[in-house]
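Q: Predict the bound structure with 2-acetamido-2-deoxy-beta-D-glucopyranose.
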Amino acid sequence: MKLKLAPGVLWLIAGLAIEMASAANILFLSPFTSYSHTHVFFYSIKALASRGHTITHWNGLKPREDIANVTHLHSASLQKMNSRHEIGFNGNNPIGLMLTLPDRLSNVCKAVYREPVFHQLITSREHFDLIVIEAFMNECMLPLVQHFQAPFIYLSALPPLPWMLDYTCSPLSFQQFPALCTDFTEEMNLPQRIVNVFLNVMVIYYRNWFILPRVDQVAADAWINSTVPLSSVKEIEKNLSLLITNTHPVINYQYFKSALIVEAGGLHLVPPSPLPQEVETFVNGSSDAGFIVLSFGSILRGASMPEATRKIFVSAFSRLPFRVLWKWEDESGMTDLPPNVKLSTWLPPLQDLLAHPKMRLLMTHGGLYSNQETVWNGVPLIGFPVFGDQVNYVIKAERDGYAIYLNWITLTEDILYNAIQEIVNNPKYKENVQKLSNLMHDQIDLDRPLDRAVHAIEYVIRHRGAPHLRPASCRLSPIQRESIDVTFIYTAVLFAFIYLIVCIVRSAFRKLSHVVKVDTVKKIQ
Ligand SMILES: *[C@@H]1O[C@H](CO)[C@@H](O)[C@H](O)[C@H]1NC(C)=O
Ligand SMILES: *[C@@H]1O[C@H](CO)[C@@H](O)[C@H](O)[C@H]1NC(C)=O
Ligand SMILES: *[C@@H]1O[C@H](CO)[C@@H](O)[C@H](O)[C@H]1NC(C)=O
Ligand SMILES: *[C@@H]1O[C@H](CO)[C@@H](O)[C@H](O)[C@H]1NC(C)=O
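A: Predicted complex:
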C-alpha cells in the first residue's frame, strides 16, 4: 500500500515552514497614549515576545507587568502627561478639541523630543527590523522611521479616522461610515451625508495643512544636528506598510478598506480567569437575579460624577433585586450605599466579570473595548457616552438591539430603573447579543484577531515592508481617488451638452417663427 499525503497536508507543512519568522528586533513607539490605547499594544507585544522576537517598547505609561524579552523605555514626565488627559463628565466638545489639536500635538512632540529616551534611541545605532507606532497623535515618531530605515506599521486602538482611510488609500466610505463623534448611523439621509462628507474631507485637509506642518517644525528643531536631511512626516508616512485597527465588522460600522488595513478588533480578548475570592463571593451570592456592573473604564474617573447623578444611581440601585458592582475610585466610599451595592476602587478585568454566568448587564461609558467584551461574552449593555467616539458605538449597539442608550444629562431615577429592568427582563437584548457573539466567535481565517495581528506584523518583517500592498491610487489625492474631479468634468460636459441643445432648439424655434411670420406677412399682403 502506498502512503499518499493529501495535497492539503503538504501545503500545511510548507505553510508551517514559511510561518516561522526568524526572531526579529522590533521597536514599538507609543510615547503619547492612554490606558485604553495601550491595550492593543500590550497584547500584541506579549504575543510577539512569546514567539521569540526581541522587543523594545517606548510607552508613555508604566507597563502593567514586565514581559520577558521586552525592554520597556519609560519616563516620569510622559507618565504625568498620559495619565491625565483632562477628560471629564462635562463638555468635551470635538470641534474645540480639533481646533486645539495642532497646539496639543506640537506640545506633545516637544515633550517627547526632550526625553532622554529619545536621545538614547537615536544615538543607539541599533538595527530594527520593524517599527510599530501607535496611530493616534504619535506622528512625531515618524522621523525615527527614516532614521532607522526600517519598515513601519501603525497600530490603532480606534476605528480608522478619516486621515487613516486617506493614507491607506482606502475609499473614504462617506456614504455609510459616520464620522466619529457624530450621532449619525450607517443609514444617513442627504443632509446628514452632506455634513458627513464635509467633516471627513475637512479633517483630512486640516491634518495635512495645519497639523502635520507643525510636527515638521518641531521635528526640524529636534533634529537640527542630523546629517541626513529630514523628510516631512507626510512623506515618511507614504512608506506605511500596514494599519492594524481595533475594529470588527460585527461591532463597528463597515467601511471599505485597501489591503493596507488589517482588522484585528478584539485582539485583547482572552479566555477568562477566575475572579478574586472577595468579588466571587459577592457576585455568586446574588441568588438567581444575578449581578450588574457599573464602570466608566480607565480614562474617566467614575468618582468625578456630579453628585445629583450619583444620587440617581444610588436610589435606582436600591430598588433592584440584583447585586451591583460599582467602580468608584474614591476610597472614602458613600454613606447612603444600599446593601446590594459594592463599591470598589479597582475591578477585576471586565472580561472575567462578563464571563461569569450570573452577569446580567454592564453599565458603561460605551468605549470600544467594553463593547467588544460584552459582545464576545454575550452580555447586553446600557451606555452613557461621555465623549468622543463613544456615542458612535452606543448608538450602533442600540440599533443592533443589545443596548440602551441613556443620556446621563437628562437621566432620572425612573429612566435608569426602567432601562435596567427592561434590558434584563426582556429576552430580546440577550438574544441579540448572543447572535452577534456567535458571529464574532466564528472567524474564518485565523483563530483569533490577535493571531491575525501577529501574522500581519511578521509578514511585514519577513518581506521587509509591504509596498506591493499599496494601491496604485496612493499617487492620487483624495479628490482624485474618490473620482470627484471626474464627476465634476462629467457634470460640466452634461451641462454644456444641455446648454448646446437648448441653444439649438431655441434658434430653430426662432427661425421657424420667423419663417411663419414672413409667410403670414406675405399671405396678408
Ligand atoms: C524569549 O526569547 C527566547 C528566544 O530569543 C525564547 O526562547 C523564549 O521563549 C522567550 N521567552 C518568553 C518568556 O517568551
Ligand atoms: C546640536 O549640537 C550642538 C553642538 O554639539 C549641541 O550643543 C546642541 O545641544 C545640539 N542640539 C540638539 C537639539 O541636539
Ligand atoms: C521610503 O522607502 C524607500 C524604500 O525603502 C526609501 O528608499 C525611502 O527613503 C523611504 N522614504 C522616506 C521618506 O523615508
Ligand atoms: C456559587 O454558589 C453556588 C451556590 O449558589 C455554589 O454551589 C458554588 O460553589 C459557588 N461558586 C463559587 C466559585 O463560589
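A: Residues 1-19 have pLDDT under 50 and may be disordered.
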